[in-house]
Amino acid sequence: MSGVVRFRVALVVCAVSFAHVGCADRDTASRQTVTRTAENSDRWHVNAEPTLILGGDSSLAWGEVVGMALLSDGRLVVASDYPPALSIFAKDGRLLRTVGRRGRGPGEFEAIGTFHHYGDTIFAADLDDVGQHFTEDGRYIRSSERPVGGGTLHGLLANGDRIVGTLKLDHIVKNEWRQAPEVIERVAESGRVVLGTFPSQRLSRSADGELAGEIFAPHNRVVVFSDGFCAGYAGDAAITCFDASGLQTGLISIDREPQPVTDDEREAYFADVYLANPSVPKSFLDDEVARLRATGKFAKELGVFGRLLASSDGLLWVGPPSTDAWRSANRNAAVESPSDWLVYSRNGDRVARVTLPAAFVPLAVSHERVAGVGRSDLGVPTVVVFQLLRSSAP
Question: How far apart, in whole angstroms, are the C-alpha atoms of residue 319 and residue 343?
Fold first, then answer.
């Protein structure tokens, strides 16, 4: 395969949960949690028609959308790859500025692997985790190297400290499936602080020593706010929230049961390999799908929840299993049916339930808007923004 073609299949996922907290020796009284349910919580909804659709025709062609940010003044930032760029739009959809071209200098990217909005700063990182920081207007501020010790970047706190997770794989052996732990750390210029060690997905090694994970395996979702983070192992019906120091602030109970992986879902995964790699020769993909059918291992059950989103007003949005970014070979694969999201405060209160339209994957949420990836009638990726109506349904 040509060196310029990148092939995406989601087999190994670096993610996990909070079953045992590394700072468990803190004063127990200071770590009391609040767990509440609200059967009569508000029913929010979005307008039937989007307030904004970008793309879908020759005027604006998206590659893979890596992330989005809804700014407080109404602007929208979209980070995309193929080619790598940060696009800043006015609330009415006018393109205000595009930042990015191929290269390794300021404002240049070989690719954009991750994107985050923290405080009043935009952060985009190459696949090797070399990050660049920009103002909300797209002005370059500085670069930051991959932290010593590495780790999967989950997000940044308001002061720019990173929350990262590192899988521990020493006990993962050939031909045996074992659950891997992940260490979550806060990384600052002064060093790294361990916030906890938590269970992750089940992994194994092949005969030649390569690491593999169960397809559709429940794993941990971590979402970072300006002043803390929440995480939960999707195999359990609970999500725990913490402040920036790792102090537990709330426990959220998810009112869902795990569902078995069906034959239709397995077939949808294989079909999506083709959708996620449109530039790769079909003959190569045929061989890859055949290999996956022969050697890939599917989990028996889906996780209890999918994506987690941090709303800009501090609320946690919890998506159903169908929204899990790693349930398909394409991390922004459209959800075929409407998705029912639960909204929580980080002390454990359920605030609302909101149903989002089919063929729409939310990537950013604010007090009054929901932005994400949709599909045109021709199946072309689009950026879509809906108005969020926070009053109870009649």
Answer: 9
